[in-house]
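Notes, p. 3: input format for complexes.
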Amino acid sequence: MSKSAAQDGAFSITAGTAIETILSLTSIDRLDVRILLMHALSLSRAQLITQSHRALTDTEAQQVSRLFQRRIAGEPIAYIVGEREFYGLPLHVTPDVLIPRPDTELLVELALEKLPVHGSLLDMGTGSGAIAIAVAHSRADANVTALDQSSAALAIARGNAERHDVKVRFIQSDWYSALSNECFNVIAANPPYIPEHDIHLTQGDLRFEPISALTDHADGLTALNTIADGAARHLAPGGWLLMEHGYNQASSVRSLLAARGFNDVRSWSDLAGIERVTGGRISSIVQACT
Ligand code: GLN
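Output follows (290 residues plus glutamine):
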């Protein structure tokens, strides 16, 4: 019978002991430890459990150690593993795109609710493609367009659309600038809305995310205003504009929509009970799309 590494006097680490050691030495939570180990060892969730007693090879131990060092340095899990699930769909993410948040699923639900059969939707500042791809995946009848200023983001979004086999038209555009006089039934956006000096920009995952996707380098309302400004030229009669915003911006966004003649202006709360999305319908007085 062969002797185990421990009997030989060598120190051996298994996937199981690695989990417990990392949990005791760092503040990384159990779920994240598992996700990183699955990634480092190329194991599924089930394999990680069934192989928890197998000793790691030196190469595997080094790979595990490298990934945990990146996490300890603050790098987001989603960037380390290159993936984040949104609306049930795993999406590829890199530091060129914002990491999709569960809060934004509210925006998808509202967009789906407002989108008529065979309707058209425009996702402004699509990043990883999360909103556009989630809508197109749920509604094969929809005509989905997504734009972003960043060619790196568009490459990722295109790959994600291909991976989930959905049809989305991608356009490189600085907000509405590359669109002619097209009209959409729904315009949805999760724009950069964090004010320049907000403390959150210096904390957690946000430190690693593309700054232009997070802040307008001003009061946080610049992009929300720009999107509302152009909506009259790009919303079909009765069309909805839906925008995600910061935890304390709902009343400002309602005001900016009301000031531009939108009807049925209201906000919706996310799962944490925070007003997270505000929207309104274009009124026939300002609506200019035919
Ligand atoms: N929801 C992100 C956050 O607060 C910000 C996203 C954005 O600016 N659009 O972490």
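The longest strand covers residues 235-244.
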